[in-house]
Amino acid sequence: MSWTHVCVSTVCRRLASGFISPRIFTNSQPYYPSRILCRQMGSDTKAISVKLNGSGLIRSHGLIGGKWTEAYDGKTLEVLNPATGEVITTVPFMAGRETNDAIASAQEAFASWSKLTATERSKRLRKWYDLLISHKEELGQIVTLEQGKPVKEAIGEVTYAANFIEFYAEEAKRVYGDIIPTTSVDRRFFILKQPIGVVGLITPWNFPIAMITRKVAPALACGCTVVIKPSELTPLTALAAAELSIQAGIPPGVVNVVLGDAPAIGEALLASTQVKTISFTGSTAVGKKLMAGAAATVKKVSLELGGNAPCIVFDDADIEVAVKGTLAAKFRNTGQTCICANRVLVQEGIYDKFADAFSNAVKSLKVGNGFEEGVVLGPLINDAAVQKVETLVQDAVSKGAKILAGGNRHSLGMTFYEPTVIADVKCEMRISSEEVFGPVAPLLKFKTEEEAIHIANDTTAGLASYIFTRSVQRSWRVAEALEYGIVGVNEGLVSTEVTPHGGMKQSGLGREGSKYGMEEYLEIKYVCLGNLI
Ligand code: ADP
């Protein structure tokens, strides 16, 4: 039996059972060649895959000390296309030993990378930015292939990802220290800012490249070296970006990528005394584990965790702006972002009008394979994600909520879900307190500004929030009262590389992007120069 046959029949079995998730192979099982398995794909996807195969950007190995590396025990992991369930390729399923070697390579490279002048590091980062931009189409296609988002949105993500590198190439030159006025005439006080050392970066699947560059760019700009662990669901974009970092002249060992057994890799990063900080984006549950694990070596952690974003539409909102903004805040990436509007709070005077206009707009959103023309909503990442959405919708409906649009799995099958609006949602329903991470907008009615602020803040999360109002006074009042790291006022798309991203409460620690993003990767050193007289 050929490898193609083995693989196709396995995928068919899993499609039939309705369960799609990547599998791990040991070296005694069929090992797939390190390239895209186009023979299993539909014709559109196949043509794109053939082109990508020739681009040199498809890498099916981890990167340790500048060498493309297999798992030491030969284990591999399938990477699946969520829109079709087909196997794209396999990557190594690495664990602790490979991670320790990656850390050692990063430690060795730190000695020289941190000693380069900021201008020199900046030049290499700038070159990396140029390469990402000149390959944005191919990189966007890789994102769509493994993550599912519409290719136009995926190319947008690549540009956004590259922008972090450009921004931090510039910031590298602005790591200023301080001179503090002395308290005695024979002493002077100096503050140095120095790179913290090797850093571990753990990233999720919803933004396979932007979540990586948002961490790598400031780390490298400061003079740190990195071990990246991308999500096992979307490793190919990370590897393609790493390939371009090599082409940009970033030296071996500065950027390392390990893939595979998340807990084992996490353990190795936590246990190492050489790793000085871990920057993580992902679930609150895993973030808490990492924070607890970091205590053993008193490691710094930077965490961007789950959200429960309120989107508040006041009676005095411009309804067109509110519908457009809520649509963008809710449905970007098929609702799979931690800053997605999770609860739409609508004031009673505008509720019916807004519900009507919003559900009409939602009904017009085209769902499908991200490579298809006009598609704005791709599939959810896997079946577990769809099951969670179904459970939350069923819970709300069973407690009295009303479906205004969608409400079911999409007729396309696989992991596609209909864009959905639910009315009459109450705070007691699970959908009001749990992160939906899917294309479902629950509408809750409120009477007063105080009530809206109370409902919005009555959660353990505190990442993003949105308000829609024409009143300048109310904008400030409510923005100041919201316990959230990010507030969008009359705006549903708030992320940029020049502004700080991060949460309050259990949504995390630290900030990414902007000048504040550098602080995660710097140590402050106080030098006292004495006996000057
Ligand atoms: P999501 O539900 O968004 O996938 P996770 O927190 O499970 O969020 O995953 C985010 C990232 O954390 C992924 O790269 C995943 O592999 C990694 N991860 C999951 N569990 C652990 C763990 N125990 N230690 C370290 N990393 C982990």
Largest sheet: 7 strands, mixed
The shape, in one word, is globular
Beta strand count: 21
Strand order of the largest sheet: 15-16-17-14-13-18-19
Distance between the termini: 85 Å
Number of helices: 16
Low-confidence segments, ≥5 residues, pLDDT <50?
Answer: 1-20, 28-41
Small molecules bound: adenosine-5'-diphosphate
What is the radius of gyration computed over CA atoms, rounded to a whole number of angstroms?
24 Å
User: Percent helix among the residues?
Assistant: 25-40%
Into which percentage range does the β-strand content fall?
Answer: 15-25%
Mean pLDDT: 92
Classification by helices and strands: alpha/beta
Describe this structure in words.
With 533 residues, the protein is α/β, with parallel strands linked by helices. Helices cover 39% and strands 19% of the residues. The protein is built from 16 helices and 21 strands. The strands form five sheets. The chain has a seven-stranded mixed beta sheet with strand order 15-16-17-14-13-18-19, sandwiched between helices. The chain has a six-stranded mixed beta sheet with strand order 10-9-8-11-12-20, sandwiched between helices. The protein has a three-stranded antiparallel beta sheet with strand order 1-4-5, covered by helices on one side. Helix 3 (96-113) packs across helix 9 (262-271). The protein starts with a helix and ends with a strand. Adenosine-5'-diphosphate binds at residues 202-205, 229, 231-232, 262-263, 266, 282-283, 286, 289.
